[in-house]
Amino acid sequence: MTGKRTTKFDFSAPAELFIAKRKGGPRPPVTYRRFAAAAEAIRFAVEEFPAVRTLGVSMQVGDERYDGDDIKRLYESSDYPKRRGKRLPVD
């Protein structure tokens, strides 16, 4: 999504979420989760990992890949279909 112009985002499409866990060493291990709907992946990423921009979180929906900034923008979008939970401001 970064630098790309996209049509309306499909929040109901299946999504894969990749979270790089930083624990020292040259390569951080990556956690993977699959979600039935992108809206759930977005909610999980933003509400469970408030530092989504700095943690190396990315999401794959179909052939498109979204970084932490993209995920945060989708969460804050007026089109986001889920109720937003409480989260600590990080930025």
Written overview of the protein:
The chain has 91 residues and is an alpha+beta fold. The protein has a domain at 16-76. Helix content is 22%, strand content 22%. It contains two helices and four strands. It has helices at 38-48, 68-76; strands spanning 15-20, 30-35, 57-61, 64-66. A four-stranded antiparallel β-sheet has the order 2-1-3-4. It starts with 14 loop residues before the first strand and ends in a 15-residue tail after the last helix. Mean pLDDT is 79; it is low at 2-6.
Quaternary structure type: single chain
- Which range does the strand content fall in? 15-25%
Q: Please trace the helix and strand order, writing H or E for each element.
A: EEHEEH
Low-confidence stretches: 2-6
Spatial order of the strands forming the largest sheet: 2-1-3-4
Describe the main β-sheet briefly: 4 strands, antiparallel
- Helicity, as a percent range: 10-25%
End-to-end C-alpha gap? 20 Å
Q: Please, how many helices?
A: 2
What's the total number of strands?
4
- Estimate the global geometry from the Cα principal axes: globular
> Class by helix and strand content?
alpha+beta
List the topology elements.
Elements: E1 15-20, E2 30-35, H1 38-48, E3 57-61, E4 64-66, H2 68-76
Antiparallel strand pairs: 1-2, 1-3, 3-4
Helix pairs in contact: 1-2
